[in-house]
Amino acid sequence: MNDKKDFEAALKGKKVPLLVLDQKWHRLFAIHGKTDEISATEKELDELLKLQGKYNNELKNLKKLKSKIMSNIVANMGDDGDEKRDKDKQLIDEINEKADNIEGELIEIQKNIKAVNDRLMLLSMDYFSEKIEKNKLESKEIDDWIANIRVELKKNVIRKQNRDINNREIYSYLHDIFGAEVLDLFDIEYDDPMVFNANNANTDNANNENKGN
User: Fold this and answer.
1) Alpha carbon distance 43, 119 (integer Å)
2) Could you tell me which of 33, 84, 124, 183 has the fewest CB atoms within 10 Å of its CB?
3) Is the pTM value of this prediction over 0.85?
4) How many distinct structural domains can be found in the chain?
5) Whether residue 87 has pLDDT greater than 90
């Protein structure tokens, strides 16, 4: 999806997770790694999140300080300390101003985080769609290779069976005519239990016939 407007329309109403905090997103790049553009955008988002965390901590500390000063003002309401109360009130005004500024910054940072996260998602979608198509192509090539290997395997199995049958017939024929001793002179050996048993049976039959005569 390369059209930004289409992408923004597709995102409308959907809760997109912060990708840099999503381990599943990181694992998708485990094999081939991230592009330079994706890595740069990821770093930009990381910096925004760090800045957001910094401002949130500052805001939290300001609220604690304000609460402490307010408690002091309430505790000293009956005392003759107008100057001290005025200073505390001035501090509260300064704290409120700083807090308002920080909250304004946080609103802008949140907008930027969403914009950069959406851009990172768009880059990821482009990357993943391309990777899916490439994986499909490579998977098809592997399927074709497996199919060809299966055909060749079947052919070779038949060839092997034919060679074994031929050797069995040759050895059995020579053994019947010349016997094992002559075949040994020519270093002709054939380790096949079927032939061995058949030849032994033929030898036993011949011996039995000779005994009968």
Assistant:
1) 13
2) 33
3) no
4) 1
5) no
